[in-house]
Amino acid sequence: MTAARLSRSAPASAAFVATLAVFLVVGLLGARGYLDNFLRYRGYPPPREPAFVTQPGTLQRMQVRSPALGGRMQEAYVYLPSGYAQHPHRRYSVLYLLHGFPGRPLAFIETVQMGIVDDVLATRNRVAPLILVMPFGSTGTFSDKEWVNGISPGEGWASFVAHDLVRAVDARYRTISTGAGRGIGGLSEGGYGAINIALHHPREFSIVESWSGYQRPDPLRSVFGAQLQLLAANDPRRLLPKVAPQLRKNGTYFWFYSGSTDRLSGQNAAFASELARAHIAHHYFRVYGGHTWAIWRNSARAAYLAAAARLGNG
Fold first, then answer.
1. How far apart are CA 38 and CA 45, in angstroms?
2. Which residue has the higher pLDDT, 238 or 24?
3. What residues pair up with 133 in beta bridges, in sequence order?
4. Is the overall model pTM greater than 0.90, yes or no?
5. Partner of 308 for a Cys bridge, out of 10, 107, 127, 244, CB 3.0 to 4.6 A?
6. pLDDT tens digit string along 240-285?
7. What 8-state DSSP symbol labels residue 78?
8. In this structure, are residues 131 and 162 in contact, taking their beta carbons and an 8 Å threshold?
9. pLDDT, tens only, 206-248
């Protein structure tokens, strides 16, 4: 090859490499954008308010200093319902929602779309609107804490929710600051967490919801100790008989479901039988499907209505 041909081919090769690099960068950015979008919305379109909702609710982020977590600042999100600002003397019941693992609190807004459910039902005057509170229950998306008071110092995740977070929300917002005005629920691991926390703090919540949750906690030594010494103390099946009298006195109501093909459905059916034997008000049912976002999203309206119908209103 002559020097002239080499000089002509070098710019062409450089242009090809540059073009290829651009295509690769664009492709990688597109793939990253698609992945981020999927993780955020789980394949569903972003939330969009119906046209008839003229005053949507507002989402706020709060930081709670938690003694139960060793004094750390812990994140939570609060969804204030439509009309909150326009009714300064009204007080609202609160539904606390616990995410699964791995998980994050905004999944209730971005994927399950509980904010839109809140807005639609409030606009149509179907029920008294609720404040939704969605805490972050870990130190990282892939750090499993099971929503319990763990073995290590500063790992009081159940106390963070039932005491530190509840007190902070009651102090900052116009809530009905009694157990009659509070509900707690969650999906998957958050469903277990909601039941476990409610049984440890039977005066704090009057309705308990579990969406595809479970009652047999995972035997995690990092959470329950090297000898799993805290496992029995966080087993709803063992806790229920001890607190059943208080639950009956309070009129606490359990509302929970599982998918028809969910391997956890047997645990839930057994727990429903235990609630029946303890004469505790409850409603357990199965919906078609597995352990999926589709079930939680499709059942969001029913979950909201069940909570709103039982909670006091201002």
1. 9
2. 238
3. 78, 96
4. no
5. 127
6. 999 999 999 999 999 999 999 999 999 999 999 999 999 999 999 9
7. E
8. no
9. 999 999 999 999 999 999 999 999 999 999 999 999 999 999 9
Q: What range defines the domain where residue 77 resides?
A: 54-310
User: Does residue 100 form part of some domain?
Assistant: yes
Residue 233 shares a structural domain with residue 269: yes
151 and 35 in a common domain: no
Strands 182-187 and 130-135: unpaired
CA distances to 37, 87, 123, 170, 190 from 49, rounded to whole Å, are 19, 21, 11, 28, 26
**Tokens representing residue 95 in the block:** 């539904």
Query: Does one domain contain both 169 and 35?
Result: no
Terminal-to-terminal C-alpha distance of the chain: 88
Cα four-point dihedral sign 275, 149, 259, 129: positive
| DSSP conformation class of 165 | I
Q: Is residue 246 part of a domain?
A: yes
| Cβ atoms within 10 Å, residue 62 | 17
Q: Which residues contact 304 (CB under 8 A, 6 or more apart)?
A: 95, 114, 117, 118, 121, 127, 130
Query: Which amino acid, 203?
Result: R
